[in-house]
Structure formats: structure tokens, C-alpha cells
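Listing 4. Sequential folding, example run.
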Amino acid sequence: MLNRGIDTNELGSAGALGFWTRKVYLTGFADGSITAVIRPGDRSGRTTRGWLPEKTDVAVRFIDVQGHTPPGVNQDDPRWVNPTFLPDDGTTIRITECLVKTIGELTEEDLRGCSPDCATPELVRYHLGVVYNMELPDVDQVITIRRFEHRPKVTE
């Protein structure tokens, strides 16, 4: 049974060996319609949380039950709760581009390939608020757009 991409300590960054996403996006990954995602903050640097290397195959893991990270709490604290994942179905992507912009700078082209809940800059604000349990970000919020191509599913 596969179990890729769930290491929470590699490079000091949750998900560094895998790309984590919510299970609501399963269909978009299965049919190839999702080819870009948006994350809060600048995640372009190797030492930043959630950094992923370009031109490298990455395991996609679908979150079954969301974890909980209280503010100011590190992974050694018992209040830190890691997410649980659906079984690894072999979904694999290769990051092809990483763009850093503010929400206010987003264009229709920037949002091409994102999930339907990120179809406009205004929807991006709500997407980030809901997914990351944060106050509604303003248009000056920096975000990272990761573009990727779908790779053959890994079977072993």
C-alpha cells in the first residue's frame, strides 16, 4: 500500500514531501481540470513553509480530517494535531511554475486552472479565509500560485 508525501518534518515544513489538498478537490485532480493552486503568503523560497521543488514529481495527498495548529504552537506540542489522509491513490504532479503576487494583482490568466472557488480575486479571498481559517484577507495579501502538470499515477 502506498503512503507517500505525509512527512511533517522534512525541510522543517509540513507537507514538504507531498502536496496536501482537501478531498473536495478530488474530482478536479482526477479529471485534470485543476492545474494550479493558491496558497497564502510567499512560498517561493526553499526554507518557507510548504515549499515544493519545481520540475520534481510530488505525491498528492487528499486530507480526510483536517489537522489543527494553534497559533504559536510547534509540532512538538501535544495541542498540535496532524491531519489524517485518504489512502494514497498514486496521484502525482510536477510543479512547473511558482508565482508570487498580491490578491489585488491577480488576473484571469493567473487563475486559469484553479479550482472553481478561486475563479476570481474576490473568491480567492473567501477560499483562503475558509481553507486556512483566517480572517478575510484584503487585496494586499501576498499569495503563491503553484502551476503543475499531472503525471502518471504511481502504483508502487
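-- end of first protein; second protein begins --
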Amino acid sequence: MGSTDQATAQTHVSAQLFADACTVIPGGVNSPVRAFTAVGGTPRFITEAHGCRLTDADGNHYVDLVCSWGPMILGHAHPAVVDAVAAAAANGLSFGAPTPAETDLAAEIITRVAPVERIRLVNSGTEATMSAVRLARGYTGRAKIIKFSGCYHGHVDALLADAGSGVATLGLPSSPGSPAPRRPTPSCCPTTTSTPSGRVLRGTASRSPR
């Protein structure tokens, strides 16, 4: 049995779950990076995780090097985190109004990250990036932004121009609805300039008041 056939045999439950998901979710996933398109195969459907290990619907175990794309710095299902979440959930999940816990969290982050003086809490990295761009434009009066080629900076058109997930996608956008690489469309991102990561920008264009 070849490696591809073996992998398919070991993930047949995930494959069926993916087929089921495709009937009610466009593309079968709720984030393009979960689709496994760039690396082949079908997505692994995870049923549980503890510490640094994930378990999929077929019972396969994986060492988690992704950490839910960043936030799982304490690992999965850490007892202290589970207890804190359960205690908070017992008092209600969402109120549409300020809570004391928001202030406590903001103060804790400021204490641990010295350069930060104040903080705005948002629900996703996309919202954080959009807020940062809006703040920078409001403060400087400039409209143009610079992003790194082939990097994902949030799920918004002006930042998806020349996007991707690094080497995995060779910097190419994965959706026809995303701006073409190095050719931002005037309708959605005329103020976006893409540059290779790490390159020092030179010339008057990068220092213009735009």
C-alpha cells in the first residue's frame, strides 16, 4: 500500500465528515487554511485535544505544532483554563455590554507586555489588523498601507492582495474573489503596496506623505 493509500485508509472517518460538511458548509470548512488544499488530502476532523496532542475522528494522534494558529500557548484543555472557562460560563456567556473581566484582562496584558499602554479587545486577528490600519490612517492622515507578499494579514480584501500562507501556497490567493498577486484591483485595494518580507523599503515612494 502506497503512502497516499495508507493515509486515506487511516482517515476515512474524517473523509466522510468532510463530505457531510460540504453539504451544509461552502467548501466544507469555515476557514480556507483548514481545507488542506495546499498540502493534499482531506481535512482531519479533530474530536479532542489534551496538552500538545490532537486526536482526530479516526483515532489518530498528532503533535500540535499549530496551537490553533497561536492562542493555545498553555496547550489544550489545561485544567486551570478549563476551570476558569466553566466558572465564567456559569454566569452567562455574552451580554453585549462591558464586564469587569474585560478590564482585568486588559490590565493583565498591559502588565505583561511592557510597551503596551492601553488595549482594545477584539474577536479575531482580522479585526485587530483592520483596527490597527484604521488607527494608523487616522493618526497619520495617510491612506496607503504596505503588507508583506505571500503573508496572511487578515480576511479583508485590502490585506488579501498578494496573500497566501507563505511557502504552503507560494503566496497565491486561494479564492477567485481575492485580489490577484501584485495587481491589486482598483475597486478594493488601490492603496495596498506589497513588498517581500524583510526587505528595507527605499525610494521616495515608500516615504511619500500618501
